[in-house]
Amino acid sequence: DSNGDGIGDACSLAICDVDEDGDIDTSDIRAILAGRGQQADPGDPRDANADGVITSIDAKICIAEARKQPF
Predict the structure, then answer these.
(1) Of 26, 41, 56, 71, which has fewest CB within 10 angstroms of its CB?
(2) Which residues face 61 on adjacent strands?
(3) Is 20 helix (H, G, I), strand (E, B) or coil?
(4) Measured CA distances, 8 to 1, 12, 31, 43 (Å)
(5) How many CA atoms lie within 13 Å of 52's alpha carbon, on the beta-carbon side?
(6) How many other C-beta atoms are found inside a 10 Å radius of the C-beta of residue 14?
């Protein structure tokens, strides 16, 4: 529980939930797009495909994940 929210790290929406508010939405996608071209540390939620670089591919992955969420 590295962020102290009471939820184990393995159970949180680590991938794509950039603002850590429990969902994947336009705020998260905008943050990913704003970071395009930046190097990503391991576990960076903006790096959905974990290749070490923030790209538009990460945004596409997260858009697909957002569509899977219940409304």
Answers:
(1) 71
(2) none
(3) coil
(4) 5, 7, 24, 14
(5) 0
(6) 14
Q: Which long-range contacts (CB under 8 A, 24 or more apart) does 18-24 make?
A: 18/45, 18/46, 20/45, 23/66, 23/69, 24/62, 24/65, 24/66, 24/69
Report residue 63 as tokens.
Answer: 């858009």
Where is average pLDDT lowest: 10-14, 21-25, 33-37, 51-55?
10-14
Evaluate whether 16 touches 61 at the Cβ level (below 8 Å).
yes
pLDDT on residue 2: 58
Consecutive H or E run containing 57 = helix 56-67
Please report, as a single letter, which amino acid is at residue 16: C
CA distance linking residue 59 with residue 57, whole number of Å: 5
Please compute the mean of the pLDDT values over residues 35-54 and round it to a whole number. 96
